[in-house]
Each structure stands twice: as structure tokens, then as C-alpha cells.
């Protein structure tokens, strides 16, 4: 198999799997993906080994797209707190506007895929900028990052699961909780006014982002074909 042919096959498998995961659900297996393309399941295994690896690539691509757009309105080098909170709000609004994406996020939480994708992507460097502001402790930066992401993403995952079971917790409440938890994990005391202020600023930034790039509210325009 030529290098160009292998690259084409891998990209086709990835694009097809991504579309099926969003339109039919993450339960879709290699057989369905292979049928859609007209290739063997073995070729999918050759390129990706597991379905989880494809999902990690999906999150990585999404992080890259959204973080790039977000930098147009918030510079992470100038205000990393506002950047992260804006990223939380941006993702939340896109998920709400696209039930199929929200379903994908919920179905992949048990495998810790969204968190794992951070380590495998450039977004890790964004979070490391935040960790610099953590109150001093005896841990190095990498350990602090691991603890921060493990705590925040496991909590996010648990809340998503409870919401599927009927837990009454709105998107705004979830955002407040996420921001409070962010500060807590960084070693700061709870401060409702600080949380409310940064959320308001973040929402204003995300509003302006959607006003300029409305296609971001539709995953069929910015993410899947």
C-alpha cells in the first residue's frame, strides 16, 4: 500500500467514523464503519486499533478548531482564566444546540476520552498556562495538571450521567459549578462574585464569537460533513 493510499484510507475511515458516531451513536462498531466505506474491518484496526482511539482523535480535532476560534476573542496569554471559562461556555452552548454531539459526549465519558484527548493535543499547553496560577504545593506542574483534569473532568462526567438519569441541573448551574471547581482545584477560596463576574465576561465573549461565526453553532457546518 502506498503512503498516499494509506493516508487517504485513514482519513476516510476517520471521517466516516466521526459522521456515524454523531448521526447513529457511539455504539457504532467497526463492522458498520467498514460497511459504510466498503472496506475490511481489519483495515480499520490497522489504522486505529480501537474505537476509543478514533474518539480521541475526534476530541482533538474539536479542541483544535474551537480553541483556535476562541483565541480570536480571548488571548490565553493575557487572561487564561477567562479563556478557560469561555471554552467551558462555548462547548456547553454547542452541545445544547446539537443533541447528537451532546449524546456523543455523554457516551464517551465513561472511557475518560475527553480528558485523555487533552494530553494528546495542543490543548494541554493551554491548561498548563492555567496550572501556573495554582497555589503553591509540593507537586510538580505535570502532577498538578493530572490532578486538576482528573478532578474537573470526572465531576463533569458524573454530572452528565446524572442528567441522563433525570437529575435537574441546568447548563447555567453546571457552568457555575465548573468555574467554582476550577478555582477550588487551583487552591482558591470560593467567591461567588468572582465566579459570576468571569462567567458574565465569558458569555459576552462567546456571544460575540457566535455573532461573527454563527456556523460554530451547527456541527454539520464546522465539524462533520
From TrEMBL:
A Pfam family that the UniProt record links to this protein: TetR_N
Gene Ontology molecular function: any one: DNA binding
InterPro entries (alphabetical): Homeodomain-like_sf (IPR009057), HTH_TetR (IPR001647)
DNA-binding region(s), chain positions: 29-48
Domain HTH tetR-type: from-to ranges: 7-66
Highest taxon above the source species: Bacteria
Keywords of the record: DNA-binding
PROSITE patterns, per the entry: HTH_TETR_2 (PS50977)
Protein name: TetR family transcriptional regulator
Annotated source species: Acetobacterium paludosum
Organism lineage string: Bacteria, Bacillati, Bacillota, Clostridia, Eubacteriales
